[in-house]
Design goal:
313 residues; mainly alpha; 14 helices; 77% helix; elongated
Length: 313
Amino acid sequence: MKAVGKTESEEAQSEGSTVQEKKTKVQAAEDRRSRPAPRLNKSPIHGLWALTLRDLRKWYTNPIQLFVALIQPVIWLGLFGKALNFGSFIAGSGLTPAQQDQILISFFGTTSYFSFLACGVLAFIVLFTSAFSGMSVVFDRRFGFLNKALSTPVARGSIVMGKIFQSVGRSLIQAAIILILAVLLGMDTAHFSVLGIAGAFVVIFLMGIGLSALFTMLALRSGDWQTQMAIINLLNLPLLFASNALFPLKIMPTWLQDVVKVNPVSYANDATRQLLLGTPGMVGLPVDFAVLIGFAAILSAVGIVLSWRFLSK
């Protein structure tokens, strides 16, 4: 009898506890209903920052991506830059050191081809990082994140600019690492200055915006990563080799010189070499900056306009 009474008491206590829990849940639900809804931050700057930070976080939390992204430029610097030593070729001709330096300066604007190439590799890394900015759009569409972003108050233009700015941020970080490596490997620093280095990174910023906008807007209607990869392979190598990134303009055939002069990558290389190496430019710095500013502004505007038309669920 005592055991039965104890069981009934426990059951009554359990029922009382269940009733109390239900009352607590009902009260909590009423509190939530009466609570004012949180204010949505519809600022375009807030949406742009959130989307940019999301893509950057995916990159910097994965050290393998950073390592792989740096391998190729390091190979170009360490192997190609050191193996293709024009100074050694000229030294074998029997000319005096002064004559050798004069020949190198006449072709490259500097006595060190490695320094000439190092500035080109800065453009190289921006070009290849920008090329893959469009891939982010393709994968966001494929895995459903793009549909979620389009369901929010974030403007379509902010989605495009978020992709562009995350690519530019990655380019600036990688370019800084490559520049440090180039200096350690023997890049000429005689003409380095704070203003010159700052100007070179402004050039990288402008080139990154223009190129990222180009590849992002080409991906707006693409849902297949293979198609986007084909576009990247079609454009990035011609943009690199049809520029003055690896070789000076004067040793190219005439028809290729005309192509180089309309390639915005050439103007970025030209400005970077003038700022970091003090070499005479293909054109003056004001012209280089004017071309790059126009390139970045026009392609960004076109990308935003196309996003209004082509970005859909």
